[in-house]
Amino acid sequence: MWMKTLEEAHEALRTVVRGVPADGWQLPTPCDQWNVTQVLQHAAGDQLGFAAFLTGGPGPTEDPFAPSGELDGKDPREVVEAAIGTAAAAWATVDEDATEVPVPVPPNKMTAALGAGACALDAAVHAWDIAIATGQPSPLTDDLARELRPVAEAIVEPLRAYGAYAPALESENGGEAAELLRYLGRRPR
């Protein structure tokens, strides 16, 4: 089941990156201080980080939490495709019932389902960030949000201390995707 959620989140990220207009890469995003290119770099770096933890292979070449905003001539679609392809291949090697897999988020070991969910949460939420910044439809469906909400509740609180997520916003009962976004400190639009 978790592979389906991860695939859906990866497809969301892939789709919104393909939909960014040529003049959209410098637009501001819901992530304070980051433009679309920086969110892309962060999201790609996080996917590579998950893969590196799982396989012992190389991680991102740039700090995902201090993205430069420069792709040095690389095609953004190729950047995201390489990152999600690497992450998907790494997760495909993990036993679905594994009780302890290494991940780049505290506590750095999780069940396979929770770890893959964390990877999916990252991809899906940053897909939403890019979509909102560039005027695209939200790729975060209520069904995907329903799958990701328990993951968020399991991992986000410790990450708030590092500034990875803003404080949760008050619930407004606006659907599961909107509620997940509020829990992650984002204002649904």
Count the domains.
1
- According to CATH, the homologous superfamily is dinb family like domain
Helix content: 40-55%
Return residue spans where pLDDT drops below 50 for at least 5 consecutive residues: none
What is the overall silhouette? Answer: globular
Number of strands: 2
Kindly provide the name of the CATH class: Mainly Alpha
Pfam family, one: MDMPI_N
InterPro entries: CHP03086, DinB/YfiT-like, Maleyloyr_isom, MDMPI_metal-binding
Domain Mycothiol-dependent maleylpyruvate isomerase metal-binding: 6-131
Structure, described:
It is built from 6 helices and 2 strands. The mean pLDDT is 95. The protein has a single domain, classed as Four Helix Bundle (Hemerythrin (Met), subunit A). With 189 residues, the protein is an all-alpha fold. A hairpin with a 6-residue loop joins strand 1 (101-102) and strand 2 (109-110). The chain starts with a helix and ends in a 6-residue tail after the last helix. The chain has a two-stranded antiparallel sheet. Residues 6-131 form the Mycothiol-dependent maleylpyruvate isomerase metal-binding domain. InterPro entries: CHP03086, DinB/YfiT-like, Maleyloyr_isom, MDMPI_metal-binding.
